[in-house]
Design brief:
Elements: H1 16-23, H2 28-35, H3 39-45, H4 48-58, H5 60-73, H6 75-102, H7 108-120, H8 126-132, H9 140-152, H10 156-167
Domain F-box: 14-54
Pfam family, one: F-box-like
Protein name: F-box domain-containing protein
């Protein structure tokens, strides 16, 4: 089997503004994956404008407060730090529920406390719920708490249902 010839141009030859436009339209995991493809893509994917958009989309309320710090740390570092803070905060809720389940029970009080604890967290959004609560590694109750929180506090499913009804 004969290999096809290499394309005339290279990805590294792509103009910077076009490469940034491509990277700026991706989600977090895709930006990280693309950045692992080559040095030129890594430089593009590490650009502040890419991570600023990701930060602002995921945590819009925190973005205004983070803007002054972005000049010192950069948006990628701020994004990583905020992601870690969300991970720690939501992990505490998961551990609380897990300890109740390990005792062989989960009362409605514990379930409602988990929902309330999530609601008290500043700027938790659907992507945070998706990252940290919707997982095959978690019990069904943790997934249910994420779903309940998304419906009650974020109105995620209600908006989707309304939107699909309007589209018909």
């Amino acid at each position: 089997m004969e290999l096809s010839p290499a394309p005339a141009g290279r990805w590294a030859d792509l103009p910077e503004d076009i490469a940034l436009a491509v990277a700026s339209r991706l989600q977090e995991a895709d930006v990280c994956a693309l950045g692992g493809c080559s040095r030129s893509w890594r430089a593009t994917c590490d650009a502040d404008c890419v991570w600023e958009r990701l930060f602002r989309c995921r945590w819009p309320a925190a973005a205004a407060e983070a803007a002054p710090a972005s000049r010192v740390q950069g948006w990628k570092a701020l994004y990583i730090n905020q992601h870690r803070r969300m991970d720690v905060a939501i992990s505490n809720v998961v551990e609380f529920v897990g300890s109740s389940l390990n005792n062989g029970w989960l009362e409605s009080e514990c379930y409602l406390k988990a929902i309330a604890d999530l609601a008290l967290m500043d700027d938790i959004g659907f992507l945070d719920v998706k990252f940290f609560l919707f997982s095959r590694n978690h019990s069904a109750i943790i997934n249910l708490i994420g779903l309940h929180y998304s419906i009650a506090s974020l109105h995620v499913l209600l908006k989707s249902v309304r939107h699909s009804k309007l589209a018909k």
